[in-house]
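Objective 1.3, modelling of assemblies. Example input:
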Amino acid sequence: MITFVLMTNWLVLIYFITINSVYLVSSVAAFRLLRSYSRRLQVVEIDDLIIRGGAPPLTVLAPAYNEEATCVESLKSQLTLRYPSYEILLINDGSTDQTLQRLKEYFELEPTIRAPTAEVPTTEVRGVYRSRRHENLWVIDKANGGKSDALNAGINYCRTPLFCAMDSDSLLERDAMMRIVRPFLEDDTTVAVGGIIRIANDCKVEAGTVVDVRMPRGYLARMQVLEYLRAFLAGRMGWSALDAMLIISGAFGVFRRETVVEAGGYKTDTVGEDIELVVRLHRLCLENKRPYKITFIPDPVVWTQCPENLKVLGRQRNRWQRGLIETMWEHKRMLFNPRYGKVGMLAYPYFFFLEMLGPLIEMLGYVVFAVALVMGLASPLFIAAFLMVAVVLGTALSLAAVALEELSFRRYPRMSDLLRLFAFGVLENLGYRQINTWWRAQGFISKLLKQNAWGKMTRKVFTTEKDKT
Amino acid sequence: MQAAQQDRGLLVLVVSILLLVGIALLFAVAAVGLRVRNDRKRKRLDALEAGWEPLILDYLGGSRTAGDIYAVVGMGDRYFFSQFLYRFITRVRGQEREKLIELGEPLLPLLVAHTRQDQPEDRALAVQLLGVLGFEPHHYVLFEALDDPSGLVAMTATRALARPEHPGFAKILLLNLPRFKLWSVGYLASMLKSIGPAISPELCRIIADPHADPRLRLVATEALGELRDPSAAAVAARIIPVETDANLLAKLLLLLSSLGVSSHLPVIRSCLGHPHFSVRMEAVAAIGALGTPADASTLEPLLGDPSPWVRLHAARAIRCLGGERVLAEIIATDHPGAAASHEAMQEAGA
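Predicted structure (tokens):
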């Protein structure tokens, strides 16, 4: 028993040091990249590059299920995008609320015919509509099949070389498309690009655009601001620089249509369809020895509402963990397989051992540490080491993420927001991180018990100034 | 002994972690420092720009001279002023543009010096500014930048040199193009198009040369299509029967769609059975644009093509050639071309 406790303590210590070191190295790499990227933005005149440079036509695919509260506002923002040539396909995935009715009324939809251009299997498509007011807005109405199925239906009706997959309740910044297609212009082998997701809770929204960025008022939402900064600016920049990025968020990513069709579209039997597709794209290109690029760029932004109560947030994290497990298991042949280069030898092991198994190791660590304390088995130095890696190093990484934000985009203009982010960087590790670990561990157990549901996500409406008056 | 060793190990660990924490805390300090510095810098630059804008407008109106303006632009702010001037110039045309370029003359030595900075982004920015503010006296600097080790700098210089007033630069730019072989065909073609019709003969030569870089031939074909040079059609029709690259074939057929004539139809029809769907699709589209009503029956089998793209283009082409009856017959059936036919008929308002 004593040996078990001691060995487990060491295992957990090694886990914390490894995962936090990876994040620290990633943060340092991200510093350099963001500096260079910010300088580069001054040089490359985006408008000129895109408008003169033969901007490829693009389709925005927005799957919607019971989005009557936000679908109109979200589409309004998508219709004001600054991009020379694009279409919007909203896919109504068998909503049981008034989503379709609201869209029909507001956008004057009329039934039309549009022949599909791919044959990825989906549930029945009941009808296609086109807006009389906006010629580039289409709605595909289909039987419920889940988000992946809806995206596949969108891909089947997509007629442009690129498509953007996003959540229908998110708000794209007006220049987001111009920025995110730049890698496709600079490197023809690019098959997918991810952008950054930012938290819109309590931001001021006008005509579908975030006009005043504010820190959320809620404690949980503030924690998520920090988490997202760390995950995107440190994590994804680092992996992208290594050409080993495994995740493009389902809330905002642009893909080369023909490559995704060749890969078979999104898998419908997983809740982690976003990571699963990206991993499958890596496999497709690496197995066929094709030059390719999957990258992340930090300035095209989509704003999204994050969960503000523990129950909904817990369900989300549970689902994300299940999605990760499903993908890691599905493609486990890539693990430590030199055939898959850096993806197989670096990224995959990291996600497999540290992200997938990590929550279990962490939970075990907290429990065993408590037991060690009670049994008097932990030396003061060990206690110090454990607290440092579990709390202090995590705090330091959060602060590093805030610094990365300051270096690059400074979306939170008020000094008070910066100081709040610092404060939450400390608080995050005193409870929030631990409960997150618990939810993720639950996700692991749910997966083992074969529970596959998405769970009910409740969404806040975007607050506009008109709504407040 | 073992416990002592363990404690030594833990001590090393704690010290290492403290060091890591120190590094990360430096980030935090850097963040606050950056915020303060950037806020101050932004306020200062905003104030400078707010002061310069009315002066520039007065200069354009003739009530101020260049000397008046440079009297208030500090030496340390001149590079920033050149960027401000660049943004202003890109918003105006004609005489106002020329006047502003004249205003920027004293800044040119500074810009030339900046093209030799260490960081490629800084060099590229200077090249971009020089390309607008100092093109005529300093285009040799832009030519030198074509050989810059950084692709970003070289591309910025290439774009700056690709202009219709200097068609003679085209040959040098085309020689340099293979360096950008990863860039999208569409982007490179658009850039060549901006040189204007004077580049067409050179592009025709490239597409006709079977030994030329395949990607360059693709770019040249697309650029010719955008330039709408009718002489390219004859070249395309000559190449198609012997070309084996499916991507290039598709582009050549696309070019014939918009620039071809009916005498090109036999060559186009020969591509209808090509194994690659994009070639069949473009051949169908070209026949739809140039063909005769008799071609509608030639295209009918393609309504059942395995590729949905070919089916859609076939339906549209058949409708253009007067074959609505054929389309109407299959709309209500299980024929693979039913949806495409329905859409084509809807587009015609039927």
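Chain B is about 70% helix and 0% strand.
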